[in-house]
Amino acid sequence: MSDDHVMDGATETFVAHRNLLFTVAYEMLGSAADAEDVLQETWLRWAEVDLEQVRDQRAYLVRITTRQALNRLRTMSRRKESYVGPWLPEPLLTTPDVAQDVELAESVSMAVMLVLETLSPTERAVFVLREVFDVGYDEIAAAVDKSPEAVRQIAHRARRHVDARRPRTVVSQRRTRAAVDSFVRALNGGDLQGLLDILAPEIVYIGDGGGVKHAALRPIGGADKVARLLAGGLGRNTIPIAFSHTMVNGSPALAVHLDGELDSIIAAHVQADRITGLYVVRNPEKLSRIASETPLTLR
Protein backbone atom coordinates (compact mmCIF):
# COMPACT_ATOMS: atom_id res chain seq x y z
CA MET A 1 0.00 0.00 0.00
CA SER A 2 1.41 3.39 -0.97
CA ASP A 3 2.32 6.04 1.60
CA ASP A 4 -0.07 8.47 -0.11
CA HIS A 5 -2.96 6.03 0.23
CA VAL A 6 -2.19 5.41 3.91
CA MET A 7 -1.97 9.15 4.55
CA ASP A 8 -5.28 9.73 2.74
CA GLY A 9 -6.89 7.11 4.97
CA ALA A 10 -5.40 8.66 8.10
CA THR A 11 -6.56 12.13 7.05
CA GLU A 12 -10.06 10.94 6.17
CA THR A 13 -10.50 9.22 9.53
CA PHE A 14 -9.11 12.17 11.49
CA VAL A 15 -11.35 14.67 9.70
CA ALA A 16 -14.39 12.42 10.21
CA HIS A 17 -13.84 12.42 13.97
CA ARG A 18 -12.39 15.90 14.38
CA ASN A 19 -15.49 17.47 15.97
CA LEU A 20 -15.67 14.63 18.49
CA LEU A 21 -11.98 14.94 19.34
CA PHE A 22 -12.29 18.71 19.77
CA THR A 23 -15.27 18.23 22.09
CA VAL A 24 -13.35 15.70 24.21
CA ALA A 25 -10.35 18.03 24.47
CA TYR A 26 -12.47 21.12 25.18
CA GLU A 27 -14.47 19.42 27.94
CA MET A 28 -11.22 18.28 29.53
CA LEU A 29 -9.51 21.66 29.23
CA GLY A 30 -12.14 24.40 29.11
CA SER A 31 -9.98 26.17 26.54
CA ALA A 32 -10.62 26.12 22.80
CA ALA A 33 -7.11 27.37 22.02
CA ASP A 34 -5.53 24.57 24.04
CA ALA A 35 -7.98 22.05 22.58
CA GLU A 36 -6.86 23.04 19.08
CA ASP A 37 -3.21 22.55 20.13
CA VAL A 38 -4.13 19.11 21.45
CA LEU A 39 -5.72 18.22 18.11
CA GLN A 40 -2.53 19.26 16.31
CA GLU A 41 -0.50 17.00 18.60
CA THR A 42 -3.03 14.21 18.13
CA TRP A 43 -2.75 14.48 14.34
CA LEU A 44 1.05 14.30 14.42
CA ARG A 45 0.89 11.07 16.41
CA TRP A 46 -1.99 9.65 14.39
CA ALA A 47 -0.11 10.24 11.14
CA GLU A 48 2.66 7.90 12.39
CA VAL A 49 0.30 5.05 13.31
CA ASP A 50 0.12 1.85 11.23
CA LEU A 51 -3.62 1.87 10.55
CA GLU A 52 -3.67 -1.80 9.64
CA GLN A 53 -2.83 -2.56 13.26
CA VAL A 54 -5.67 -0.44 14.67
CA ARG A 55 -8.92 -2.31 15.33
CA ASP A 56 -11.08 0.68 16.38
CA GLN A 57 -9.79 3.90 14.85
CA ARG A 58 -12.27 6.16 16.64
CA ALA A 59 -11.35 4.73 20.04
CA TYR A 60 -7.64 4.99 19.23
CA LEU A 61 -8.00 8.66 18.28
CA VAL A 62 -9.93 9.39 21.48
CA ARG A 63 -7.15 7.67 23.43
CA ILE A 64 -4.44 9.80 21.82
CA THR A 65 -6.50 12.97 22.36
CA THR A 66 -7.09 12.11 26.02
CA ARG A 67 -3.40 11.55 26.68
CA GLN A 68 -2.42 14.80 25.02
CA ALA A 69 -5.18 16.68 26.83
CA LEU A 70 -4.02 15.25 30.17
CA ASN A 71 -0.51 16.51 29.51
CA ARG A 72 -1.88 19.93 28.56
CA LEU A 73 -4.23 20.00 31.59
CA ARG A 74 -1.33 19.54 33.98
CA THR A 75 0.51 22.41 32.31
CA MET A 76 -2.60 24.58 32.47
CA SER A 77 -2.98 23.87 36.18
CA ARG A 78 0.35 25.56 36.80
CA ARG A 79 -0.62 28.43 34.48
CA LYS A 80 -3.86 29.03 36.35
CA GLU A 81 -1.99 29.42 39.63
CA SER A 82 -0.63 32.76 38.39
CA TYR A 83 -3.82 33.83 36.61
CA VAL A 84 -5.17 37.22 37.74
CA GLY A 85 -8.64 36.85 39.23
CA PRO A 86 -11.12 34.01 38.62
CA TRP A 87 -10.58 31.70 35.64
CA LEU A 88 -13.60 30.93 33.46
CA PRO A 89 -13.83 28.48 30.56
CA GLU A 90 -13.36 29.97 27.11
CA PRO A 91 -16.86 30.59 25.69
CA LEU A 92 -17.80 29.01 22.38
CA LEU A 93 -20.35 30.27 19.90
CA THR A 94 -22.22 27.02 19.31
CA THR A 95 -24.40 25.68 16.52
CA PRO A 96 -28.18 25.25 17.04
CA ASP A 97 -27.91 21.45 17.21
CA VAL A 98 -25.83 21.73 20.41
CA ALA A 99 -28.73 23.42 22.21
CA GLN A 100 -31.10 20.73 20.93
CA ASP A 101 -28.95 17.97 22.46
CA VAL A 102 -29.79 18.39 26.16
CA GLU A 103 -26.99 16.11 27.35
CA LEU A 104 -24.33 17.86 25.27
CA ALA A 105 -25.59 21.36 26.13
CA GLU A 106 -25.46 20.57 29.86
CA SER A 107 -21.99 19.04 29.65
CA VAL A 108 -20.48 22.16 28.03
CA SER A 109 -22.47 24.70 30.06
CA MET A 110 -20.43 27.21 32.04
CA ALA A 111 -21.93 25.93 35.31
CA VAL A 112 -20.89 22.31 34.70
CA MET A 113 -17.53 23.24 33.18
CA LEU A 114 -16.73 25.17 36.37
CA VAL A 115 -17.58 22.09 38.45
CA LEU A 116 -15.17 20.05 36.30
CA GLU A 117 -12.46 22.56 37.25
CA THR A 118 -12.64 21.22 40.81
CA LEU A 119 -11.56 17.71 39.74
CA SER A 120 -7.99 16.49 39.45
CA PRO A 121 -6.72 16.05 35.87
CA THR A 122 -7.18 12.26 35.95
CA GLU A 123 -10.61 12.52 37.60
CA ARG A 124 -11.69 15.00 34.94
CA ALA A 125 -10.51 12.80 32.10
CA VAL A 126 -12.25 9.73 33.54
CA PHE A 127 -15.47 11.63 34.26
CA VAL A 128 -15.63 13.23 30.82
CA LEU A 129 -14.94 9.98 28.97
CA ARG A 130 -17.29 7.86 31.06
CA GLU A 131 -20.17 10.19 31.93
CA VAL A 132 -20.24 12.40 28.84
CA PHE A 133 -18.99 10.14 26.05
CA ASP A 134 -19.93 6.73 27.54
CA VAL A 135 -16.48 5.23 26.89
CA GLY A 136 -15.92 1.78 28.40
CA TYR A 137 -13.76 1.33 31.48
CA ASP A 138 -11.15 -0.77 29.65
CA GLU A 139 -10.71 1.90 26.97
CA ILE A 140 -10.50 4.67 29.58
CA ALA A 141 -7.89 2.63 31.46
CA ALA A 142 -5.75 2.47 28.32
CA ALA A 143 -6.13 6.24 27.82
CA VAL A 144 -5.19 7.29 31.37
CA ASP A 145 -2.70 4.49 32.07
CA LYS A 146 -4.63 3.00 34.99
CA SER A 147 -6.15 -0.40 35.65
CA PRO A 148 -9.86 -0.84 34.83
CA GLU A 149 -10.61 -1.34 38.53
CA ALA A 150 -8.79 1.88 39.44
CA VAL A 151 -10.73 3.69 36.71
CA ARG A 152 -14.03 2.42 38.17
CA GLN A 153 -13.08 3.82 41.56
CA ILE A 154 -11.98 7.14 40.08
CA ALA A 155 -15.21 7.35 38.06
CA HIS A 156 -17.32 6.70 41.17
CA ARG A 157 -15.43 9.32 43.17
CA ALA A 158 -15.60 11.91 40.38
CA ARG A 159 -19.32 11.26 39.75
CA ARG A 160 -20.13 11.72 43.43
CA HIS A 161 -18.07 14.93 43.53
CA VAL A 162 -19.74 16.41 40.43
CA ASP A 163 -23.27 15.35 41.42
CA ALA A 164 -22.89 17.17 44.74
CA ARG A 165 -22.01 20.42 42.95
CA ARG A 166 -23.74 20.42 39.57
CA PRO A 167 -27.13 22.10 38.96
CA ARG A 168 -29.98 19.92 40.19
CA THR A 169 -32.27 20.41 37.19
CA VAL A 170 -31.89 21.29 33.53
CA VAL A 171 -33.93 24.35 32.52
CA SER A 172 -35.35 24.59 29.01
CA GLN A 173 -33.81 26.93 26.44
CA ARG A 174 -37.08 28.86 26.31
CA ARG A 175 -37.11 29.57 30.05
CA THR A 176 -33.43 30.47 30.06
CA ARG A 177 -33.98 32.88 27.16
CA ALA A 178 -36.94 34.44 29.00
CA ALA A 179 -34.79 35.05 32.09
CA VAL A 180 -32.01 36.54 29.97
CA ASP A 181 -34.58 38.80 28.24
CA SER A 182 -35.76 40.10 31.62
CA PHE A 183 -32.16 40.62 32.67
CA VAL A 184 -31.40 42.69 29.55
CA ARG A 185 -34.52 44.82 29.98
CA ALA A 186 -33.50 45.63 33.53
CA LEU A 187 -29.93 46.45 32.45
CA ASN A 188 -31.04 48.68 29.58
CA GLY A 189 -33.53 50.49 31.80
CA GLY A 190 -31.15 50.91 34.72
CA ASP A 191 -33.86 49.13 36.73
CA LEU A 192 -32.34 48.04 40.04
CA GLN A 193 -35.58 46.47 41.24
CA GLY A 194 -35.94 44.65 37.93
CA LEU A 195 -32.47 43.18 38.45
CA LEU A 196 -33.35 42.13 41.99
CA ASP A 197 -36.51 40.46 40.67
CA ILE A 198 -34.67 38.30 38.10
CA LEU A 199 -31.56 37.51 40.17
CA ALA A 200 -31.88 34.62 42.62
CA PRO A 201 -30.99 35.47 46.24
CA GLU A 202 -28.09 32.97 46.08
CA ILE A 203 -26.69 34.20 42.75
CA VAL A 204 -22.93 34.11 42.21
CA TYR A 205 -21.28 36.53 39.77
CA ILE A 206 -17.88 35.58 38.35
CA GLY A 207 -15.87 37.88 36.11
CA ASP A 208 -12.79 36.93 34.10
CA GLY A 209 -10.60 39.74 32.82
CA GLY A 210 -7.34 37.80 33.00
CA GLY A 211 -5.54 40.86 34.29
CA VAL A 212 -6.05 42.49 30.88
CA LYS A 213 -9.56 43.92 31.35
CA HIS A 214 -11.13 45.23 34.54
CA ALA A 215 -13.09 42.51 36.37
CA ALA A 216 -13.96 41.55 39.93
CA LEU A 217 -10.98 39.76 41.47
CA ARG A 218 -13.19 37.30 43.34
CA PRO A 219 -16.69 35.88 42.96
CA ILE A 220 -19.52 38.08 44.25
CA GLY A 221 -22.50 36.47 45.94
CA GLY A 222 -26.02 37.67 46.69
CA ALA A 223 -28.64 39.41 44.57
CA ASP A 224 -28.27 42.81 46.23
CA LYS A 225 -24.48 42.98 45.77
CA VAL A 226 -24.62 41.71 42.19
CA ALA A 227 -27.48 44.04 41.19
CA ARG A 228 -25.70 47.06 42.63
CA LEU A 229 -22.44 46.05 40.94
CA LEU A 230 -24.18 45.85 37.55
CA ALA A 231 -26.27 48.97 37.99
CA GLY A 232 -23.28 50.94 39.28
CA GLY A 233 -21.07 49.82 36.41
CA LEU A 234 -23.65 50.84 33.81
CA GLY A 235 -24.24 54.13 35.60
CA ARG A 236 -20.56 55.03 35.40
CA ASN A 237 -20.15 53.92 31.80
CA THR A 238 -19.80 56.75 29.25
CA ILE A 239 -19.18 54.57 26.17
CA PRO A 240 -22.09 53.42 23.95
CA ILE A 241 -23.04 49.92 25.07
CA ALA A 242 -25.19 47.32 23.33
CA PHE A 243 -26.39 43.85 24.38
CA SER A 244 -27.19 41.21 21.76
CA HIS A 245 -28.49 37.70 22.16
CA THR A 246 -26.28 34.78 21.18
CA MET A 247 -25.84 31.06 21.90
CA VAL A 248 -22.77 30.22 23.93
CA ASN A 249 -21.86 26.71 25.09
CA GLY A 250 -25.29 25.48 24.09
CA SER A 251 -27.29 28.06 26.08
CA PRO A 252 -28.73 31.56 25.54
CA ALA A 253 -26.18 34.24 26.43
CA LEU A 254 -25.35 37.88 25.78
CA ALA A 255 -22.63 39.53 23.73
CA VAL A 256 -21.72 42.95 25.09
CA HIS A 257 -20.34 45.54 22.67
CA LEU A 258 -18.73 48.78 23.77
CA ASP A 259 -18.59 51.42 21.05
CA GLY A 260 -19.22 48.68 18.49
CA GLU A 261 -16.42 46.38 19.66
CA LEU A 262 -16.99 43.04 21.42
CA ASP A 263 -16.14 43.59 25.07
CA SER A 264 -17.48 40.54 26.86
CA ILE A 265 -19.72 37.51 26.88
CA ILE A 266 -22.26 37.03 29.65
CA ALA A 267 -23.44 33.46 30.22
CA ALA A 268 -26.25 32.83 32.69
CA HIS A 269 -27.38 29.83 34.68
CA VAL A 270 -31.10 29.76 35.43
CA GLN A 271 -33.07 27.82 38.04
CA ALA A 272 -36.79 28.30 38.77
CA ASP A 273 -36.95 31.21 36.28
CA ARG A 274 -34.29 33.24 38.13
CA ILE A 275 -30.60 33.66 37.40
CA THR A 276 -28.39 31.81 39.88
CA GLY A 277 -25.09 32.30 38.07
CA LEU A 278 -23.59 35.04 35.88
CA TYR A 279 -20.31 34.29 34.13
CA VAL A 280 -18.72 37.33 32.48
CA VAL A 281 -15.71 36.71 30.22
CA ARG A 282 -13.80 39.89 29.30
CA ASN A 283 -10.32 38.49 28.69
CA PRO A 284 -9.76 39.23 24.97
CA GLU A 285 -7.73 36.03 24.56
CA LYS A 286 -10.87 34.04 25.40
CA LEU A 287 -13.20 35.79 22.96
CA SER A 288 -11.68 34.63 19.67
CA ARG A 289 -14.20 31.76 19.21
CA ILE A 290 -17.20 34.10 19.23
CA ALA A 291 -16.75 35.20 15.61
CA SER A 292 -17.87 31.85 14.16
CA GLU A 293 -19.79 28.80 15.35
CA THR A 294 -17.91 25.81 16.78
CA PRO A 295 -19.44 22.40 16.03
CA LEU A 296 -19.49 20.03 19.00
CA THR A 297 -20.62 16.41 19.20
CA LEU A 298 -20.77 13.44 21.56
CA ARG A 299 -20.49 10.93 18.69
Please write out the topology.
Elements: H1 3-29, H2 32-46, H3 57-81, H4 96-100, H5 102-107, H6 110-116, H7 121-132, H8 137-144, H9 148-163, H10 173-188, H11 192-198, E1 199-208, E2 220-221, H12 223-236, E3 241-248, E4 251-258, E5 261-271, E6 274-281
Parallel strand pairs: 1-6
Antiparallel strand pairs: 1-2, 3-4, 4-5, 5-6
Structural shape: elongated
Structural class: alpha+beta
Question: Can you count the helices?
Answer: 12
What topology, given as strand order, has the largest sheet? 2-1-6-5-4-3
Multimeric status of the protein: single chain
Keywords for this entry:
single chain; 299 residues; alpha+beta; six-stranded mixed β-sheet; 12 helices; 6 strands; 16% strand; elongated
What does this structure look like?
With 299 residues, the chain is of the alpha+beta class. The chain is built from twelve helices and six strands. It has helices spanning 3-29, 32-46, 57-81, 96-100, 102-107, 110-116, 121-132, 137-144, 148-163, 173-188, 192-198, 223-236; strands spanning 199-208, 220-221, 241-248, 251-258, 261-271, 274-281. α2 crosses α3 (57-81) and α10 runs antiparallel to α11. The longest helix is centred in the N-terminal third of the chain and has 27 residues, at 3-29. The mean pLDDT is 92.
Please provide a brief summary of the model.
With 299 residues, this protein is an alpha+beta fold. It contains 12 helices and 6 strands.
